[in-house]
UniProtKB/TrEMBL annotation:
It holds the Pfam family AMIN. One of its GO terms (biological process) is peptidoglycan catabolic process. SUPFAM superfamilies: Zn-dependent exopeptidases. Its EC number is 3.5.1.28. It catalyses: Hydrolyzes the link between N-acetylmuramoyl residues and L-amino acid residues in certain cell-wall glycopeptides. The keyword Hydrolase applies. This is N-acetylmuramoyl-L-alanine amidase. GO terms for cellular component: outer membrane-bounded periplasmic space. One of its GO terms (molecular function) is N-acetylmuramoyl-L-alanine amidase activity. Residues 234-388 form the MurNAc-LAA domain. Keywords: Hydrolase. It comes from Kordiimonas lacus.
Length: 399
């Protein structure tokens, strides 16, 4: 209890000190990983630069082990093959100060032990995790226990989050949201570049284009490889007092011939099967990054009920229509490019929001376009033209 209060005190202090946040979270290097198997025990070893106290917990459906460490530099190979109970792994910056590794399990497995090994026999510091396969029932009990027992890694104060205040410059505030990030890479296209990387590049091009006009105050939900939960993205937009929120993604489908972008508005019912499938995939981002969904409040559902925010919906639809028409001039687009789906990141009740699926990473030509400077610039210019037109309309409406 005393420890907990101290941690809270330090957290407040670190926020007061302007988010240096280095009181608990210190940076480490992860230089290697290994999997081993001995009977029904799977051993996961991390080579680390120094002793680091992990915060480990389990998540069900699908079975996952989440290992949170202080902010880390990942130098280990991503092509190491998982074995034993582990099917695969992901990693990345989860939030400032917390580096997350997610192990996907084939079968339920609980943490038998986790410990630190000091340098010895040619090895440096190691963090060892032994997982023991078990029944579903025992796993579910362990999920609950792991939540109670785990130590808290204190997140650094987040510079990305600002106080709720409208732009002092009087400019329109545009919030650009590059999808995915950190332990959630998004989909991997045929050219071998993850969605999180490509959409960040597109978002930066859009930001630069908008800033160059001098007319807009542009903010990004992320400007590096870091994760935000789905609903935190629109909360960031609200905190910035956004006039417009644009989430940028790139799609995938198991048909390599399909290419072209599309623009989504929020709707409780999807416009078509493809849109429903897309919403399911994009909303899964939190599951992939190991977010504990039980902790989620039901803000979103109450917001959805309150769709008396008709005005926001109308403005969102108007902007989407303009954006589609501008993109169609210069960017490959799907035939019916204006679509609707129940997308979690579009649920700000008071910020007109769209999700741009810039194209398909499963089509080689489309993926190359999205990954090229030229393609990114074309998208950026089309987005800028659309935003210009949209706000001209707003002015005409006296908004
Ligand atoms: Zn996406």
């Amino acid at each position: 209890m005393v420890l907990r209060s101290l941690q809270l005190l330090f957290l407040s202090l670190s926020i007061l000190l302007g988010g240096s946040g280095a009181l608990f979270a210190k940076d480490i290097d992860i230089s290697g990983i290994r999997f081993g198997q001995n009977g029904n025990v799977t051993r996961f070893v991390l080579d680390v630069s120094e002793k680091a106290e992990p915060s480990i917990f389990l998540l069900a459906d699908p079975y996952r082990v989440v290992i949170d460490l202080p902010e880390a530099d990942w130098r280990a190979s991503d092509s190491v093959k998982a074995s034993g109970a582990v099917d695969g792994f992901r990693h990345g910056l989860f939030s400032p100060g917390i580096y997350r590794i997610v192990l996907d399990l084939k079968d339920p497995a609980v943490i038998k032990s986790s410990f630190h090994l000091p340098p010895r026999g040619g090895y440096g510091h190691r963090l060892v995790l032994d997982l023991e396969t078990t029944s579903r029932d025992r796993f579910l009990v362990a999920v609950k226990d792991s939540k109670k027992a785990r130590p808290v890694i204190v997140a650094k104060a987040t510079p990305e989050v600002v106080s709720p205040r409208r732009s002092v410059t009087g400019k329109r505030v545009i919030v650009i949201d590059p999808g995915h990030g950190g332990p959630d890479p998004g989909n991997l296209g045929v050219i071998g570049v993850h969605e999180k990387v490509i959409v960040l590049a597109i978002a930066r091009a859009v930001r630069d284009e908008l800033v160059s006009t001098g007319r807009y105050d542009v903010r990004m939900t992320r400007d590096r490889d870091i994760f935000w939960p789905v609903r935190e993205r629109f909360r960031i937009a609200r905190r910035h007092g956004a006039d417009l929120f644009i989430s940028i993604h790139a799609d995938s489908i198991n048909r390599p011939d399909v290419k072209g972008g599309s623009v989504y508005n929020l709707s409780e019912t999807a416009s078509d099967k493809e849109a429903a499938r897309l919403a399911a995939r994009e909303n899964k981002s939190d599951v992939i990054a190991g977010v504990n969904l039980e902790q989620a409040d039901d803000e979103v559902s109450s917001i959805l009920i309150d769709l008396a925010q008709r005005e926001t919906m109308n403005f969102s639809a108007q902007f989407a229509a303009i954006l589609v028409s501008e993109l169609e001039r210069d960017v490959p687009m799907l035939r019916r490019a204006h679509r609707f789906a129940n997308l979690g990141m579009l649920k700000a009740p008071d910020v007109p929001s769209v999700l741009l699926e810039a194209g398909y990473l499963t089509n080689k030509q489309n993926a190359r376009f999205l990954n090229s400077r030229d393609g990114q610039r074309r998208i950026a210019k089309a987005v800028r033209r659309a935003i210009d037109r949209y706000f001209e309309q707003m002015v005409a409406l006296g908004r």
